Amino acid sequence: MFQIVGKRKLNDSMTLMIVKAPFIAKKAKAGQFIILRVDEFGERIPLTVADYDREAGTVTIIYQIVGKTTMKLDQLNVGDAILDFVGPLGKASELSGYHRAAVIGGGAGCAIAWPQAKALHQMGAKVDMIAGFRNKDIIILEDEMREASDRLFLMTDDGSNGNKGFVTAALAENIENGADYDLVVAIGPLVMMRAVVGVTKPKNIKTIVSMNPIMIDGTGMCGGCRLTVGGKTKFACVDGPDFDGFEVDFDETIKRGRTYFDQERAMAREENCKLMEGVKNA
Amino acid sequence: MPNMQQQKTPMPEQAPQVRCHNFAEVAEGYTEEMAKNEAQRCLNCKNKPCVSGCPVGVHIPDFIACVTKGEYEEAFQIIKQTNSLPAVCGRVCPQESQCESKCVRGIKGEPVGIGRLERFVSDWHMQHAGQAVSAPKATFNGHKVAVVGAGPAGLTCAGDLAAKGYQVTVLEALHVAGGVLMYGIPQFRLPKEIVQKEIDELKAKGVEVKTDMVIGKVLEVDELFDMGYEAVFIGTGAGLPNFMNIPGEALVGTYSANEFLTRTNLMKAYKPEYDTPSPVVHKVAVVGGGNVAMDAARTALRLGAEEVHVVYRRAEEQMPARKEEVHHAKEEGVIFNFLTSPVRILGDENGHVSGIECVKMQLGEPDASGRRRPVEIPGSNFKTSVDCVVMAIGNSPNPLIRSTTKGLEANRKGCIVVNDETMETSREGVYAAGDAVSGAATVILAMGGGKAAAKSIDEYIQKKNK
After folding, report:
1. Distance of CA B116 to the CA centre of its chain
2. How far apart are the first and last CA of chain B?
């Protein structure tokens, strides 16, 4: 059992959780992930390691409440425990040797982009962080991202924070204004990452994307997380989760990501009803 | 006077039309009367040819003699001397090509149903004796050994070492121990409760099992030595699914057999109280001809598929699956397409599987495996509509541990290189066996390897400490 030692709501649908997992905390690096199972009946879901504290023996995860598992997870509080917590899985991001980087996060993806920005910054790269949200009410980790970067560009789809536009617009503008990036890291919805590659590929700026496909064991066994990279089949759990954005077949991955969409939506609805009932009965 | 009945005492089974809609065990096991009747077919040969066919050397005629006398617990203890997982082996061993293939009774008629008797004895023990009369915990001999992977090889190695007094820690990547017995072999062939009981017995013998530990990631082999383990056994299995590299393998509805079976067996996706989404199946093509292909096909039926095809590129006689499993699959309505090989999987506009294109094959000259090589018949391509394709064409050894362990030699196929007798790897104090060494094979061969490794580890540690 893995005890929850910290929990902080970041916005209506996103939560940060600190979990006691000393062995994982000792080894985790930016870009790696864990797999958790909330309880006996739970599915196994992958979540990126957002932060770790080697001394305290804790691992930080940030999740968006999208389905049954994240709903169940969100019902746990400090002092409760998660049944299974496995990691650190996947390859750590290769971020050394870059001078000028743009790290792009979209919504919940900022939770993964933030540690990447922090790692790059610590390795001496100058970092522009570009973070995109639907509106200003759901902006997360603003202070953390500001601290991890030299410049932070906070964009909203509706302009409610006074900076309207998609992350790709900010990226293109920075490049236009002479930011000679030697690395772009993009983490967020697949369509966003595909759009970022659309900007960087013509300019041949190396672009790393972080993939989060369907996965069960996380050790290469199930093959569920396979995706096509450079025409070859790769497993996100052992070959990734970071890949060269120019090589990823996004269209195929977007379709695969919807495999269990209907079932998951039905299960989430059911869980939601159960929660609502709990509220009524309370 | 032995029972000279030529046929094996039949095994009661669930009716095919019933069982193909449930996950309960297909074969229901012998009653005492049936077991005694079958046991009396054994001639108790002096030279015991059956034992030579058993990779772990179970004293077969001795335990069968106990069954004839109704001494079931004694029979169990005889099996247990050499076999850590008898209830599992009684169900999933390919007895027909091992112990039973050497049985004298098989020359004229059917061999003694050794596997069925092994199962009866183990089940009897579980129902009547429980852990109370299990072998007592051995006295700690002062030495610690780490076992990586809680599958058949690791559990056997752990059991044998614990019996010698070693303090053994088994480190498992998944959330339960058992390996392929838990995630791969379906409930209807090997109930998970049985596997759990075997593991509980090992724990009662003092074996410590730590789940959620991916060795090579959270701890490396070198660190295990730093922690005071004097030897490390690697039994990480063949957990890397093979694909054909044909177009369409990334379509929604294409599964590796591992994913298909893990969702169902380990994650219980077929039970409504579990959160794991289940594969959606109506018309299914399973590609392959081994036991895993049979398991996937029969699982698909139980998940509600209306039509399940097995697509195999050679002929029926060359199928690697056990005859009994093929027979069961046929009874349940699985359709076999022999001498047929997929060339591409077809998809619809949403990226879902909509069909499969295959080509007919004919058999040519024998290949390296000794079987006649299947050759395409040009122009014989045809398409069938399906909405699910399961690739069951084998697994390679999982690369995780060898890619993160310095100095651990592996061959071109990714199999860890060992001394065939001692199971010693290129690293001192590190031993390996099972599918991680052999590539995908059987439970009992993995157990045989685990056993050999336990013997070598004992010798190594005792010699080192002299």
Report:
1. 17
2. 53
Phi-psi region of B374 (alpha: psi -120 to 50; beta: other; left: phi over 0): beta
Radius of gyration of chain B (CA): 23
Interatomic CA distance for residues A213 and A45, integer angstroms: 10
The pLDDT tens digits of the residues spanning A9-50 come to 999 899 999 999 999 999 999 899 999 999 999 999 999 999
pLDDT, residue B369, reads: 78
Q: From chain B, pick out residues whose CB is under 8 angstroms from the CB of A82.
A: none
Q: Which of A3, A66, A75, A221 to mutate to probe the B interface, most B CBs <10 Å? A: A221
Q: How far apart are CA B210 and CA B197, in angstroms?
A: 17
380-399 of B, contacting A, C-beta below 8 A: 398-399
Structure tokens at A254: 């977007």
What distance in Å separates the CA atoms of residue B186 and residue B349, rounded to the nearest whole number?
33
* Min Cα separation A253/chain B (Å): 8
B249 touches chain A (CB under 8 A): yes
Q: Do A87 and B173 touch (CB under 8 A)?
A: no
Task: Note the residue count of chain B.
Answer: 466
A–B interface: beta-carbon pairs under 8 A = 121
Helices (H) and strands (E) in chain B, counts: 17, 16
Task: Say whether B241 and A221 touch across the interface (CB within 8 A).
Answer: yes
Tell me the pairing of strands A58-64 and A45-53: antiparallel
User: B218 and A37: CB-CB below 8 Å?
Assistant: no
The count of C-alpha atoms lying within 13 angstroms of the C-alpha of A101, restricted to the half-sphere facing its C-beta, is 33
Q: Do residues B221 and B233 make contact, with C-beta atoms less than 8 angstroms apart? A: no
Are residues A217 and B174, on separate chains, in Cβ contact within 8 Å? yes
Q: Are the C-beta atoms of residues B361 and B313 closer than 8 Å to each other?
A: yes
pLDDT in tens, chain B (466 residues): 789 999 999 999 999 999 999 999 999 999 999 999 999 999 999 999 999 999 999 999 999 999 999 999 999 999 999 998 999 999 999 999 999 999 999 999 999 999 999 999 999 999 887 655 555 688 999 999 999 999 999 999 999 999 999 999 999 999 999 999 999 999 999 999 999 999 998 999 899 999 999 999 999 999 999 999 999 999 999 888 999 999 999 899 999 999 999 999 999 999 989 988 888 899 999 999 999 999 999 999 999 999 999 999 999 999 999 998 999 999 999 999 999 999 999 999 888 999 999 999 999 888 887 888 999 999 999 999 999 999 999 998 888 888 888 899 999 989 999 999 999 999 999 999 999 999 888 899 999 999 999 999 999 999 988 7
Q: Chain A within 8 Å of B222 (Cβ-Cβ)?
A: no
- Residue at B456: amino acid letter: S
Handedness of CA B414, B345, B342, B308 (dihedral sign): positive
- pLDDT tens per residue, range A55-89: 999 999 999 998 889 999 999 999 999 999 999 99
- Can you give B384-438 as a three-state secondary structure string? ECCCEEEECCCEECCCHHHHHCCCCCECCCCCECCCCCCCECCCCCEEECCHHHH
Question: What's B135-192 look like in SS3?
Answer: CCCCCCCCCEEEEECCCHHHHHHHHHHHHCCCEEEEECCCCCCCCHHHHCCCCCCCCH
Q: Is B247 part of the contact surface with chain A (CB cutoff 8 Å)?
A: no
Enumerate the residues of chain B whose CB falls inside 8 A of the CB of residue A249.
250
